[in-house]
Amino acid sequence: MQIHQPADLNDAIRLLASNDEVRCLAGGQSLVPMLNLGLVDPPALVSLRHVAGLDRIERGEDGSLSIGAMASQAALAAFQATGQHQVLVQAARQMAHPAIRNFGTVGGSLCHADPAADLPPAAVAAGATFSISGPGGAREVAAEDFFVDYLTTALSDAEILTGIAVPAPASNSAGHYYKYARVDGDYATVSVAVSLSADAGVCSGARIVLGSCAQVPLRLDEADAALVGSAVVDGSVDTDAVARAGTMLQQAAEPLDDVRGTAAYRRRLIPGLVARAVARAAAEIGT
Ligand SMILES: Cc1cc2nc3c(=O)[nH]c(=O)nc-3n(C[C@H](O)[C@H](O)[C@H](O)COP(=O)(O)OP(=O)(O)OC[C@H]3O[C@@H](n4cnc5c(N)ncnc54)[C@H](O)[C@@H]3O)c2cc1C
Q1: What is the pLDDT of residues 132-165, one digit of tens each?
Q2: Is the pTM value of this prediction over 0.70?
Q3: Residues of the chain with CATH 3.30.43.10
Q4: Based on C-alpha coordinates, what's the Rg of the chain?
Q5: Which atom of ligand 1 has the smallest separation from the CA of 104?
Q6: Whose CA is nearest to atom 38 of ligand 1?
Q7: What is the CATH number of domain 173-285?
Q8: CATH 3.30.390.50 domain position(s) in the chain
Q9: Residue 145's CB: how many other CB atoms inside 10 A?
Q10: 111 CB near ligand 1 (under 6 Å)
Q11: pLDDT per residue over 171-210, tens digit each?
Q12: Which fold has domain 1-52?
């Protein structure tokens, strides 16, 4: 097998386009195990490690956040985030172990699209937009539309995720990522990513996203709407509103059934974990 190490994005795209079976290599933390197990057998890999400019994490003057696809998970975990951006940093901090986070990249995790992974629900909760480049040029896709099915994304052949952009946080906002796992460092049994904003003691925006509860991150307009307009007093959200949101998500969930928990067990956990994650986000807002 050949390994290409281009320094230019267009060269990387050209190499990927040369054969349908050629794959990108980012941190290798999911792809290399798949190669070892014989699950994939590409004729060549295109490493993105030397492609210039893909590993930056930058806060814009307007407060927006831009994260390059090749930024390591460890770099994101160490980033000092504010407001709703915290949901991404907290998710990165809970991924696997330090050795994996040092090699594993933000883009690799998002493109692998494991339903139990931590960054996909956090990216949806943060309202991120994904930047993609390929033979047809550049395009942008909302995080929610990027995850299509189990290990399947909206990327077409020879397309590369170059980074994600997250809008500036609202002035009175917080993000929280709550991961429920069998042991520290394991994939989530169920995870809840929350982005919350409040204005004068009233919830002005909410996004609640479940991980490991469907083939893709699960968010419902009606569950988010149940929170908007409810009281946020002394760092806590109206518990009836949160319970309604939790029940809606529980009913919509089609959880995985695997070694980390049966589907029934996961479904049972949802309302309690939603309540816990929303309470922690509200406490971080502190109004
Ligand atoms: C023991 C272990 C424990 C783990 N625990 C967790 C956990 O608790 N939570 C969690 O979320 N993850 C966990 N992971 C997965 C880890 O986060 C991986 O780093 C991640 O899934 C893949 O990132 P990578 O950079 O290593 O990508 P790679 O393995 O290099 O690539 C993964 C896939 O994405 C494609 N790809 C990569 N980058 C791009 C790009 N920019 N554009 C287009 N396609 C691209 C590749 O072609 C490949 O198909 C664990 C992994 C291991 C080995």
Answers
A1: 999 999 999 999 999 999 999 999 999 999 999 9
A2: yes
A3: 1-52
A4: 19
A5: 19
A6: 108
A7: 3.30.390.50
A8: 173-285
A9: 14
A10: yes
A11: 899 999 999 999 998 999 999 999 999 998 899 999 999 9
A12: 3.30.43
